[in-house]
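DATA SHEET
Item: assembly model
Revision: 1
Owner: S.N.
Input lines:
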Amino acid sequence: MTIRANPPGAVAGDQAVSAQVSAHVSHFPQRQQIRAIPSLRVVIPTLNAALNTGSGSQVAMRMRKVAGRALATVQHGAASLGWVLLPQPIVDVGAASETTAISVLSRTEETPAPSQGMRRLRVPFRLTHARVVALLATGLSVGAYTWYAAHGETLAYKDAVSHMMIARRVFFAPTPGLGQLGTVWPPFSHILMLPFIWIDPLYRSGLAGAIPSMAGYIIATVYLFRSARLLFSSVGAGWVAAAIFALNPNMLYMQSTPMSELVLLGTIIVGLFYLFRWVEAERPLDLVICAAAFAAGTLVRYDAWALSAVELLVIAFIAWRRHGLKAAEGIVWLYSLLAFAGGAAWFLYNEVVFGDPLYFLDGPYSAAYQQHNIRALGGLPTYHNLILSLREYLQAAVDMNFWPLLALAALGFVVTLARFRFSERMLPVYAVWVLFFFNVLTLFLGVTVIYTPQVHLPQVATQYFNTRYGVMVIPEIALFVASLVSLRRELVIAGLGLALMFSGFNPSLGTPTSLQDPLVTVHWSIIRQQARWLDQHYHGGTILIGGAPFTAQIFATGLPDQDFLNENTPGPFDQAVAAPQQYATWIVMNSSSSDVYDAVQAHLANRTDWRKYYVLRATINGVQFYQRIGSN
Amino acid sequence: MRLRADTSEGLPVTTLPLPAISTDATGRLRVLTPAQLKAIDLGKAPASAADGERWAVWGAARSGARTTLTTAQKRGLLGAALLGALLLALEPHAAVVGLLFLVTVVYVLTSVYKGWMMARGERATAAGKGMSPDITALADDELPVYSLLVPLHYEREMLPTLLDRLQAFNYPTEKLEVLLLIESDDAETRAALRECDLPAHMRPITVPPGAPKTKPRALNVGLARARGEYVVVYDAEDQPDPDQLRMAVAAFRTSPRQIICYQARLGFYNPKQSILTHLFTLDYYVWYDLILQGLARAGALVPLGGTSNHFRTAALRQLGGWDPYNVTEDGDLGVRIARAGLEAHMLDSVTWEEAVAQVNPWIRQRSRWVKGYMQTYLVHMREPRALWRQLGPSGFLDFQALLGGSSLILLINPLMWLLTLAYILGHGTVVDSVIESVFPAPVYYLALLCLVVGNFIFFYTNVYACVRAGYYDHARYMILGPLYWLLMSVAAWVALVSLIRSPHYWAKTEHGVSLGPASSLPYRLAARRALSQTTAVDGINLSIVIPAYNEALRLPASLRRLKSYLDGKPPGAEVIVVDDGSSDGTEDVVKEWMCDWPVLRLVRGPHRGKGGAIRAGALAAQGQYIALADADFSMPPEEFDHFSVDALGDYDVAIASREGEGAHRYDEPPHRYVMSRVFNTLTRTLLVPGIRDTQCGFKSLRREVALDLFAHQTIEGWGFDVELLHIAGLRGYRIREVPVTWYYMPGSRVHPVRDALKMTGEVLSVHANSRHGIYN
């Protein structure tokens, strides 16, 4: 049995096709007639017509989507006739195919009456491009983690340990709870670690912290693929974008660590994809997903705040241009209420837990505080120096990528401007540049600090420091190179080759720039030495120690979390620093000032009242270990 | 005549041509002429009282909401209460913690369920795009007979519009049967219908007197008479899509037998009338366009909406029709459909309704709905195990959440808000620590999650719905969502009290009327139409309209004075007393007077306010001139001489004035005088420059002027005078102030504070209307 829809004209719109299909669903033969039919075919010549009139894979892609929807529609109609139907989908709408038939349904021998509504169509698993990308990304992700874990490098950054310990404290602290998430960083990546962090082997190995990063990596890869494919109507462009991102050694390393960069990239790339799609199709749900992803991003790093704010302007502008002011207002509400909900929740959390909505900005663990110290030491040359800020961040971007790719991206940007100009589709893509300028701005304002050896600065060490912030331009690089290669098929091969080259022939493979930074700046041998010393001499009791400056040491001792008392447990900590002898068996603090605020040192260094109860057992690289007299 | 009777379903089903067929009490067919048919039911009770009664309580034999709580349920509730009290006495802290834990769990489940329902709806509507059945395929001769049940109760003013809309269907009239169901005590509507030239396929049916006087009972009467293969319910103010019947037929034709009902989507045609309608519209949209769609697509239980539900007639009869004791008979029917293993689905067609625009009527309406859901919940929970068996686990969950959980949450909400407020305000005091002690960490986190995330989800889904529905400019009102929830909670508590005190009382939603027709265009159009259809009667020169609300005591004296004044004049006057929904026997007083005074007429209606009553009187007036008078006759009737046709000259409107030269006020308390002057200053500044007294009740207008003014009137309370004069000014009518002698009459109905505030509000709203061009 074939149902043939004959549209009056060749229309390539989704709705037209759906309408054709549904029109024929209502013409279904009666049940008795259907019983005699072995299978049912629905042919939609519109698809052919559309394919013939349209060009390129964009139409094919849209048709594939339409075909999927048509299937569901037909299925629904058939089910409403009392059928339980086995799907036999041959939903292939290849551009060259002569007859674009969708063989939809075939009937089972026995047809029980549906009692609980319409059956939903179950399409068997098919290997789509996006799924292949996801599979490959998963393979790369697991492989990279295994490699770096085997080399003991997943926790090279001190911050990597800090991230995990923050999540860990929610379960294991003298006063456990969400208050332990603290304000050093926004909490989303730590919340993602919660399901794993309480499992000891996962915590000690760092895997508990790396899982969110790995997920972020896979998701970012897939959604970069989808974004480039959507924007440039080219599967090849999608592959190139995905490869540039996924094969970047810095991405591969960072995704193996508990650092938050990949979680951030994952959230904002998902958000961007749905934003791109909203611009295309204007489904409000896409905008909601976009806003939700951005909201999650704002709770990972502050870069996302800048992005979601700028994209708000883009959204408002597009909505206003398309539908006028009133519609723009509604759409702006829809987006901003959710996109900025994360920020609002962050303020609320700071207010509820620390009594100050801006605690994260100006509290003692804020970046501003650290940078203040660094600046005092003369280590902030970019402060109020725009040129140097630009140079420094640009260099970081180069270091995190492969310079030929960066050059291609620049070319791609120019080509995209020429090709699409300021079309609505491209506005949200251009807006992503805000991530670049945001980072330059933070350098200029002295809120962050980046050192690269290439930008020789006499007053600071010639080594990488925070160079990883350069990863924030990767979405733009991937998308603009993709834009470039979407021009010609041959270019796709070149793009893929370059991406592979960066991975395979990069001089820094194995030790990417993002790994060189901690290997040089974090003195793990000293930290281990300090931790080992404490571990050997400690025989129970409470250790009063600054949580922020000694994260790595605490982790490296391997001692139970409950043995440490630090500023993250305000009540008991305040009692303990007031009269340490009553509460603490050990006191660990810096002997001189450091860039990270040491709460114990701040309270005790200038006081003498407690010293008579303690004996200084050791000073290792400026860290003092006091033991209470009479304890073992 | 070709006739086919099919009694296979136990009840007659007929085909062409409809108007000539009727059933008698025994269900046999008899053939009638359209004239005979029209004579039936018109103003009369059904052939036999037993007949009417039999249909009216259809379904009541079944254990419906006639009894609110069964003995077992009472015992259960009592037992639970005792257990609670016992726990509270023995372990108060643990009991409170346990209770809060339970409440929190209910909140979590509700939030999750709500999210899930929205997702289901989203999926269903996304998949169902373009699923509307194809009506072009249906030839007229393939169409079955369709019965429309339209219950009417004091809908006189909606009638012309309603009849128009009922004739707008794209459906052959010979296959259409419209049953207008009128309550036996509603002589007004029946009289109005008698005056209409009803097409042959529309039949008024009088619902026999009896209790309970509810819409479902009327519907049952209609269902008994319905001869269509399909039957649908419409309310008086509905504006269905003209293709809806065809779509329903097409949908039924392609549906399996177990789908016995198609519910059309309901939307509002006045979404922007007030802040409340903005919120209400969204509420409706989420319910009908998302949640019900999702439920229907899943083949789950669908609590039907009160109107535009299309049924297979035979199946509905087998189900026993509607429960006359349930005030949301539709919701109950939805559950019964699901319990019978049948299904209700959504029809991709919209019926436009009127959104209640003011808070009080809205609470009345919503409290009825909540009460009905409570009734329905209790009825079906009499046998929870059977319900579980019949609905299955997921259906049972839907039932618990939709019928029970939703009402419960509304009842609990204010308590929890108070608790939160106390916690915030009592920060650092003993209140704070007490509250903290009853929220152990897990409960605290759950509650916090509900408070922040749950509320955000509830609020945000509405914003999403706004944009999804294209109601972009509603989005900003969603900020006020929490206030709407507060109103819902108020309604829920009103519902609970009402359920206990008068379970079967039907709080009718006044269509068009209660709206303060203010800016409801459909209402004003309806009024305009009704007014334009009235005609003057030769020989009647003057119609004196007297609004009366609970004036049984003062009215006789006034009528006596008026009668003696009119008796001395040449004939040609009529007196119309408008009983504005009085409950003190005003109607009887007038009826008594009518026996000896033929020029006296009575118009009755639900209570609307002075402005509404005056308009109703004008609608009935037959004279060339219309005079308005107060029921207390504080102005001697002789003063009418100054308002006579001759005195009016080339003026269009004459108003009595207690100010100016020649006017006298007697016995007026000083505070009244001051209030009156303050009010006049306000009105003069804003609306009616130069008029020194708008509020004296005596006015006289040329008929055509009166009709024009009343057609644009939006205020039904005391402030209507100002509005009329303002419109008159706008439209360039000439107004004359006639100084009169005026006596203050004790027993005034005007409340010095409440009504003064209300009138000020009305003046401001007239000002706003004027600026928005409503009177143009």
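QC remark: Chain A touches chain B through 45 residues (CB under 8 Å).
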